[in-house]
């Protein structure tokens, strides 16, 4: 792994009922989790399934159709192969990770998972509908997590049948590469749920930052207004797409320019996060840039749609403004 950490399977030879002590709280830790369900096989869901399987968890990947699940599996296969070619993992690890992931055609197939991570699109209605449909199929003690970028964990938990076993586990994109995961408790999240999630995330080789449950948590509260401001900078004609990205890559040492990063995240996701900040914090400083709205309305959602602030359909990305 990039951070030098080798993920450890949580379900080793220890007794599964063995409790672990964290800060005085008795948690069943990672041993509690063996099977993980992931809902949404897009860029994040496939990345989450990837890192879980590499750490030795059995993974069931669900999306709106079998074709979507298969596309997610193909992405995982490609990213694992990339890790093999760069020497990050061996061929054996790739094969055993692939063996651990299967497509789940329906939510009913989640009945034997210990943890579900919801990672469908950043749309509260869609997430609520998934949670309402999902919960009746789960075992009563399964933990439900959401990878939402911005939506209130407390609010999403309230539509589930288990707010005390509900938590935000917010991975960063690209999941196999980024070290951070934000952990966010809802108002009712029990300590044992939090500690189990903490042990699980640690077993993936990730570092945790704990955030309170406020709109967009920490990373996106800071990052997305910067991206939105870059779009305003473009909208007001201060610089071109290339000039703005070059300025931030070379002038602030960001690995990607903000417009390139917006395309990478997905412009629909960026807009949803800005709307959540704008409405949730009721402050005009979070007003989504009208140009961002226009790109989303055009369906120019960034890399995943092959067009956003750059056009990705040719050999190399070409700015669209
Ligand atoms: C919106 C939210 O809710 C929260 C968020 O996630 S905000 C977004 C946070 N993410 C960022 O800010 C990413 C910023 N960008 C970067 O860090 C880097 O540009 C990057 C890691 C994406 C690519 O790095 P790079 O050095 O330019 O490119 P490259 O050398 O091709 O890739 C570096 C590694 O990342 C891997 N990688 C790149 N893109 C990947 C992807 N989409 N999926 C999986 N792995 C990927 C590559 O395989 C490579 O791995 P190895 O070291 O094993 O070879
Ligand atoms: N992109 C990013 O950088 C990050 C995103 N996130 C969060 O992760 C989540 C997923 O984002 P991301 O992977 O980028 O989005 P994508 O658009 O890449 O993937 C979302 C997937 O969810 C599917 N989906 C839509 N409705 C349902 C449903 N009812 N049941 C199951 N699957 C469904 C979509 O299918 P279809 O395409 O057919 O609609 C799509 O395959 C969001 O909550 C986002 O905020 C978190 C961290 C970083």
UniProtKB/TrEMBL annotation:
Domain 3-hydroxyacyl-CoA dehydrogenase C-terminal: from-to ranges: 217-312
Keyword Translocase assigned: no
InterPro entries according to UniProt: 3-OHacyl-CoA_DH, 3-OHacyl-CoA_DH_CS, 3-OHacyl-CoA_DH_NAD-bd, 3HC_DH_C, 6-PGluconate_DH-like_C_sf, 6PGD_dom2, NAD(P)-bd_dom_sf
Domain 3-hydroxyacyl-CoA dehydrogenase NAD binding: 36-212
Highest rank taxon of the organism: Bacteria
Coiled-coil intervals, chain numbering: none
UniProt entry keywords in alphabetical sequence: NAD, Oxidoreductase
Family membership noted in the UniProt record: Belongs to the 3-hydroxyacyl-CoA dehydrogenase family.
Protein name: 3-hydroxybutyryl-CoA dehydrogenase
Organism: Lutibaculum baratangense AMV1
Taxon lineage: Bacteria, Pseudomonadati, Pseudomonadota, Alphaproteobacteria, Hyphomicrobiales
